[in-house]
Specification:
The chain has 536 residues and is α/β, with parallel strands linked by helices. The protein is built from 21 helices and 11 strands.
Length: 536
């Protein structure tokens, strides 16, 4: 949460800053402005949730600022701070959305109470906004999902439009449409702010974005924005109507998305096509444009279709670097992982551009490597293996991809697997050690590999393999050896018969006991006992 303090007196700003333990209120950023005009710029760029403002300031005064905020940032919570106990100021503060009016010199108790109320009010309003959006999503859930499926097939399958033409013409008024243009709104990779806010609920993000796009497209006959059923393709705009104004509409969409979501997005366009015969061709062109979008942060958010594509640059293949990453992960050494990832990042840095097509391919390769690591992991612990991270690539606010940040994301993802492997090895060792201890103390019981595996919640095959790996001996052989060693001790007491000794070490069949004993010692139990007597 951010707070903005607006006052032309530095000592007043300092006083407010020092009187509050901001962390207690969940406030992480404290911004300052010396007049209303500077405050407007900060509010546009930083979108603070709480605003303290003086009443009398140069340029734009407090009343002017409150009036502007009421229109441009109505969700923010405003508190007036003034040296004037003026009823007109107080009345206008309340009229334009102010929550409180504090008099200078500021009393700490009054300041904290006003801030507490403002934070509480903002959180309640934010929760109400969330519930409203969720309710709208639930109410409109069925219809958009249906159109998502129908329109995905329409832009992807030749001839499909004819099977649903009457339905689409009725719903969208496309009976007289003769031209169309397909546009992809790229939602992968997502801007950082979007991933942090909607990473666990992407459906809500798509709902907001398609609503914004459709609002700017206007009447349904002008086109429709929908979520492609393949998440790789994000949001698709099937645009009809006045296509000459489409670039302006796309720019307006991006500004609206920025106002609501604090992020801009790339639009990849196809050329104008005949409707409905060339819908699929139009989508193919938009996809071709999307594949060439480079994340350079040059401000070119809307990419037109170019018929002659630039020659493809030699592809950098992750597979050539993945072996060193895998070896580093199994070493568990952070420095080795960082080095392996840095080598990959340096190879990426040699490219002239990092494109959408690159990222799709690298995501596929990374998933293969990640799953390969998990396959090598015999996971028997209570904790599940770490899931594939969602944040493989993140866009900065200017639409660029930061290679250092990308490297950190991948390093942390691989470190999580390395730590899971380490924990897994510890759990494996503990489990196998517990099995060995169990045999040492329960050898008198009837023991089978399946019964022991079930007791320790392990598979029979896994237990057999891991016990041999850890102790260089099969579990069945170890059970025989433990029983034989204990039988040797019991045979020293001639009060026990051979059959009794066999039963005491876990064998119900005396002849089978003699066979195992002979295999391990080279003599029968009777010969072993006789040797003890003769030797004694």
């Amino acid at each position: 949460m951010k707070v903005l303090i607006v006052d032309d007196e530095q000592d007043v700003r300092d006083s407010i800053r020092l009187l509050v333990n901001w962390a207690e209120f969940g406030i992480t950023h404290i911004l300052e402005a010396s007049d209303g005009a500077a405050a407007m710029e900060l509010i546009r760029s930083e979108k603070p949730e709480i605003i303290f403002t003086d009443m009398k300031m140069p340029n734009v005064d407090g009343i002017g600022l409150l009036q502007w905020i009421e229109t441009e940032a109505p969700e923010s919570k405003r508190i007036a701070v003034s040296g004037y106990d003026d009823s007109m100021f107080i009345r206008k503060t309340m009229k334009h959305g102010g929550l409180d009016y504090l008099l200078k010199p500021i009393q700490r108790g009054e300041l904290l109470e006003a801030l507490r109320n403002a934070v509480s009010s903002w959180r309640q309003a934010e929760e109400n906004r969330r519930l409203t959006i969720q309710k709208n999503v639930e109410i409109n859930q069925t219809k958009p999902v249906y159109w998502d499926k129908v329109l995905t097939k329409t832009v992807s399958q030749e001839g499909y439009y004819r099977t649903v033409a009457e339905e689409l013409q009725s719903a969208f008024g496309w009976a007289d449409v003769r031209e169309c243009q397909l546009v992809m709104l790229l939602t992968d990779p997502l801007p950082r702010a979007m991933m942090e806010k909607f990473g666990h609920n992407p459906d809500l993000l798509y709902f907001l974005m398609t609503n914004i796009c459709n609002e700017i497209l206007g009447a349904a006959k002008n086109g429709y924005a929908f979520k492609h059923t393949d998440p790789n393709y994000g949001i698709v705009l099937l645009c009809t109507g006045d296509l000459a104004s489409l670039p302006d509409k796309l720019a307006a969409m991006n500004e609206a998305l920025y106002r609501v979501l604090d992020a801009r997005f790339y639009f990849a366009c196809g050329a104008t096509q005949r409707f409905p015969d060339r819908i699929v061709a139009g989508f193919s062109q938009a996809l071709q444009t999307a594949r060439s979008v480079s994340f350079s942060g040059d401000g070119r958010w809307i990419r037109p279709y170019v018929e002659t594509a630039a020659p493809a640059e030699k592809r950098v293949v992750l597979a050539e670097y993945s072996e060193s990453m895998i070896v580093a992960v199994f070493s568990g050494d952070r420095q080795r992982i960082e080095t392996a990832v840095t080598n990959w990042m340096q190879a990426i840095g040699q490219l002239q551009a990092v494109t959408w097509d690159h990222l799709k391919y690298w995501r596929y390769e990374f998933e293969l490597m990640y799953n390969r690591l998990l396959e090598k992991l015999d996971y028997t612990g209570d904790n599940p293996p770490p899931p594939l991270p969602r944040r493989l690539f993140l866009l900065e606010k200017d639409g660029s991809i930061s290679l250092p940040e990308w490297g950190r994301e991948w390093t942390e993802a691989l470190m999580r697997i390395a730590e899971a492997l380490k924990l897994n090895r510890q759990q494996e060792h503990n489990a196998i050690h517990a099995v060995k201890a169990f045999v040492d103390t329960h050898y008198r019981q009837t023991l089978s590999l399946q019964e022991i595996a079930s007791r320790f919640f392990l598979s029979r095959e896994y237990l057999s393999r891991r016990f041999k790996q850890v102790y260089n001996e099969n579990l069945s052989e170890y059970i025989e050896r433990v029983r034989t060693e204990n039988a040797k001790v019991l045979l020293q007491n001639d009060q026990y018969s051979i059959a009794a000794v066999a039963e005491m070490v876990g064998y119900q069949d005396g002849r089978y006991f003699s066979k195992i004993f002979g295999k391990l010692t080279g003599m029968t139990p009777r010969e072993y006992r006789k040797g003890l007597v003769d030797g004694g």
